[in-house]
Amino acid sequence: MDYLKTVIPSQLFAERGSNLVVINPGSANIRIGLAQQDAPITIPNCIARRTTGANLTPKRNVQDQMLNSQVTTAQHMEREKAYDTIASLLKIPFLDEELGNNSVPRKMGRVDGAAPQGNKKETTYTWTDVLEENPKPSSVLESSSEKGETSTSPVELENSSISELHSSERKYREYIFGEEALRISPTEPYCLRRPIRRGHLNISQYYPMQQVLEDLHAIWDWILVEKLHIPQNERHMYSAMLVVPETFDNREVKEMLSIVLRDLRFSTAVVHQEGLAAVFGHGLSTACVVSMGAQVTSVICVEDGVALPNTQIILNYGGEDISRCLLWTQRHHQTWPPIRTDTLMKPVDLLMLNRLKESYCEIREGEVEAVSTVHSYEDGMPAGSHKTKLTALNVAPMGLFYPTLLVPDVYPSPPRSWFGDHEDMLEDTWHMEFPRRADMSDGFYPGVSGGMPMWDSFPIFQNKSKKEYKIGLADAISKSILSAGRIDLQRRLFCSMQLIGGVALTSGIVSAVEERVLHAIPSNEAIDTVEVLQSRTNPSYVSWKGGAILGVLDFGREAWIHREDWIKNGIHPGSGRKYKDSYYLQAQVMCYMNN
């Protein structure tokens, strides 16, 4: 403690953060970096694997495309009803309301004041070059170059158009990661996979668990090698802090921890909840943390550095749903150019819509319109530019409060039957799907040594499946805080709301949350004040930053799990190595912050 009183913060992070990797997987992106860095690297958590003639029937550009559903008539009617409710609140015309006098131009609410976002508005994406020099050994996945040399040459011969443009010394890349994977033309022989969807491991009948885990390992390994420059043979000198969203079940957390320790080969690791890390990243001890990610929104309350499990609420919508709603709104108002925009089959279109949403969408009264350039991405062709006037730009983000506007027809939650019975799932999966590896002892396989009970001793992970609600954000926040019990704590939490995640950057979101939450509190509750705290750190990565703080200040590291212990038998009750009580970490952090 004397050391904490005298050390300079930058010196502390430089000394203790140089060999600590903080990993924060979200519903669509992963934030990862060394704890000594000011900000993490944010990369789409996806991989595109090359397909061959043997598995091209039927051809799938996206692994999940068979899971998505069409919008039903009832959902469409509910969406239109929600639009009109929002329109009444924002004082704009209803969905099908015609202007009585077309000679009077509509009031333009241009978003020209957002100077930092100015460069984003005209971003044009290009198709990924899927070829590489041949031969070129892979630095990430072993033996991929040998597979590529033998299996890709027939495909190159069949694709004569590509062969004419590129020399015979080039071949298809076996794996493509991150944003590059999202910018692959649908005509190319690749299938895009997202191992995490709607806040869960993306396991389905089309995406077996073994493939999900292999893809997750491959993506994270590529980031460590190519972005952080940490090769596998040096990782025994590094520790990992895994900051997990509250949406994950304990089985899923266990699988990710196995990837970190067993496959990525970190020497030690520890797991912390995203909400708790966000509170520390903000320099607080008590708050209602509202995490608004790409595909999932969650709410959880933290009191004096301890997360309150009974206040947790999970909502199956996020920023990508707002982006798709933006497209639906423009098409309904006939402001979208006549181009083939498909957010499912062409992920690059979703990239474009996300950028438009970030640049132009805001929440405020009155008509919000803007002139922008929309791009079309036809198969293998350069991007086309279409200048258009976007309208009703304040409607889509209001879908957070009226979620029937955000029809979840794309990427529904993975079937929860996969996580319903943990013991049976372990028996089936570990004994039938996974091959045994030479470097794994028998003790690692849960059916053999009873490895699963280790999670019973971890109080921050509940055995029961996480309940998902179908309510608006304001109702969720009110319900969460009122579940905290004591009136004095409820009042503190209503005045300590913390918005995190990319959606928290939406202009006008703070005042909208305050107004809607105040209206959502039942009239019989003695609460008359609400407040969203001003963010001191970028909301999109405040949880990652909090994880870095927790890792750097945890001097004893008694809660950290060693790779050898995990591989042998996991962590069992009574072993003496459990997650440390959060009060201990809170005392360290508060001592540090008060100096």
What descriptors fit this protein?
single chain; 595 residues; alpha+beta; 6-stranded mixed beta sheet; 5-stranded mixed beta sheet; 20 helices; 20 strands; 16% strand; globular; ATPase_NBD; Actin
Topology readout:
Blueprint: H1 2-6, H2 9-16, E1 20-25, E2 29-34, E3 41-44, E4 47-50, H3 73-90, E5 131-133, H4 144-151, H5 153-158, H6 160-165, E6 170-172, E7 175-177, H7 178-182, E8 190-193, E9 196-197, E10 200-201, H8 209-227, E11 239-244, H9 250-263, E12 268-273, H10 274-281, E13 287-292, E14 297-303, E15 306-315, H11 319-332, H12 347-360, E16 370-376, E17 384-390, H13 422-433, H14 446-449, E18 468-469, H15 473-482, H16 487-494, E19 497-500, H17 509-520, H18 542-553, E20 561-562, H19 563-569, H20 582-593
Parallel strand pairs: 1-11, 11-12, 13-19, 15-18
Antiparallel strand pairs: 1-2, 2-3, 4-7, 4-8, 5-6, 9-10, 12-20, 13-14, 14-15, 16-17
Helix pairs in contact: 10-18, 11-12, 15-17
Structural overview:
- With 595 residues, this protein is of the alpha+beta class.
- 34% of the residues lie in helices and 16% in strands.
- The chain is built from 20 helices and 20 strands.
- It has a six-stranded mixed sheet with strand order 3-2-1-11-12-20, with helices on both faces. It has a five-stranded mixed sheet with strand order 18-15-14-13-19, with helices on both faces.
- Helix 10 crosses helix 18.
- The chain starts with a helix and ends with a helix.
- Residues 99-121, 138-167, 420-464 and 571-595 have low confidence and may be disordered.
- InterPro entries: Actin, ATPase_NBD.
- Belongs to the actin family. ARP8 subfamily.
- It comes from Heracleum sosnowskyi.
